[in-house]
Design brief:
Glutaredoxin; alpha/beta; five-stranded mixed sheet; single chain
Length: about 425
Amino acid sequence: MSGRRACLFSVLLSLLLLQGSAFVEELDDSFMETKGSDEIWLIEFYAPWCSFCKQLDPVWHEIGSELRSLGSMVQVGKSDATVSTGLAKEFRVRTYPAILMLKKNTKYNYAGPRTKEGIMDFANRMEGPVVRSLSSPQLFQHAMSHHNVMFVYVGATSELKGNFTTVAEELIVHTHFFSTTRDVLPKSVSLDYLPAIVVFKDRTYLTYDEESDGDLKAWINRERFLNFQHIDSYTLYAMGESGKLVLLALVEERHLCSKSLRYKHLVERVAEEHKETYSRFFLFGFMAAGDYINGFVMGEVTVPSLIAVNLSNDGYYQPAGPVETERQLLDFLDGVLDGTIEMKGGNGFSQRVQRVIYETKATVIPVFRDAPLIGCFLAGFPLAIGAFFCFLCCRNQTIPDDDEDTAALLASSVPQRKKIKNKKSD
């Protein structure tokens, strides 16, 4: 009976995979010539040996099936970058898996987490117009319920709207852009002037002021993140464009201990209750400690712990003592801002050299630990090649000396032969 169930399960699984494959097209180097000019494509570039690509493959087929069932205009494809090298070069693929959107001959790179939810949100965001119109309060509330962060232009056509649309065309890969009129917004939203640009997030809103906030694109890059959130390596890397420091509670990946939960809640409370004081300088969140943050500090971080990172110069700050209370955390933040707490790391020359050494060790040591024979071969092979070339160089240097000695010997023997002949003639 169990054997029949297992057989039935495998058959159903195979059917599901085949169904998903029907909505994902394999693309080759001829794709750019055969595609339609108005087509929208979501493409994954993979390599057969890439383990992350293999993990993403079933998710990718789910995305293809779901987009088709929703009637989306987005077509889903994938391409073996090791075979279709021309297509990979066209899209400037450097790492795997690479996820890109092609919309009317414009290419957009997806840099978010490789999850179904994240990729689906990216596809839905890219499918429609760059700036979507919200024509009723119901549509506005629907957008608010589906997006944690949204930028809204309010007012009639103006130069500001043109600037807003230009920035949206570049940053649409990261966040959501809308336009509406004043009567669509809730009565609780107070605007001193129109037109205006408003960001809605963290259950509140902020209005853009060119005089105090500066460049519009820079402001949007600063404000496109929640004040407090769960942060992964993709998000942390993207936060570098905000120009803000990031305060992190470093916790376990699963099953948070009581101290981790206390740190997480402490950071969240400070982010919420002291938003007006620190939100201009800091983003807040919690993150599972791992290879990314270890590589950032070039060492093994303590879990749980607190750290403030400066992604613009690869610097970081750590509390000198224990942080158990809100007051102690506020003192730490003030110390970072006024310079009384020393920054570690950085991107100076010596730090870059140390980073290269650390990354080399981090790459080589696991190889020796998990596969010592392969590690010895990889380490010995370059040395053997180097020794062989040194041998050739030394041999080439000795050959001319031998030739000169031989030539001198021959030259010295010629007169002797002449003398012998002369004696015989006498």
